[in-house]
Amino acid sequence: MNYDLDRNCKLAFPTNSMAECDAISAAAKNSSTDFNIYYVAAVDQAIGWTINAYGETWTAANGANSPVNHTAHEVGHLLGIINYESTNSLDVMLSYGDPSNPYRVIRHDWNIVNP
Hints:
It contains three helices and three strands; from the N terminus they run αβββαα. With 115 residues, the chain is α+β, with helices and mostly antiparallel strands. The protein has a three-stranded mixed β-sheet with strand order 1-3-2, sandwiched between helices. It is globular, with a radius of gyration of 14 Å. The chain starts with 18 loop residues before the first helix and ends with a helix.
């Protein structure tokens, strides 16, 4: 589907413009689910992002850590870890891309999602 409205071959970060994210949502969102995760080739900022009010995540394959790791990180945001980014390199909620970062959930994250 065509979402690259500015033709830069990257999904625009939502604070720059929601138009490209909205194009994906309009074409692909499944409203019968709680959350939707979209994979794109590249994004113009970060590795991807989650908008909790939409129940949606956009993630790219061009980041430092694996798509599996980044998907797990963004699902953490969808499940309620909204204003928290970790500095612990063993935490899936690590605040930056790191190829050695595992996709493991530490107790702190588990307790946020399961109070």
